[in-house]
UniProtKB/TrEMBL annotation:
This is UspA domain-containing protein. The lineage of its organism: Bacteria, Bacillati, Actinomycetota, Actinomycetes, Kitasatosporales. Residues 36-71 are annotated as: Disordered. It holds the Pfam family Usp. Residues 3-43 form the UspA domain.
Amino acid sequence: MPLTVACDGSETAGAAARWAAAYAVAAGESVRLLHVRPSRGGGPEQLRPRRPDVEPGAGAPGRRWRTSRTS
């Protein structure tokens, strides 16, 4: 069962979510990152899943994404 980490878009929550995801991946666990916001009822509302394998900035802290340059 994957670890689910939710982030509300704030800088602090984003940093905590990235750290938790990187920690889980290093431990060999699968991770699902969710971008959420509070709803009118007070509970979280999912906006969209984050995919560390395809979205820059959704992976491990300190990881830099490079673009290849061809001449």
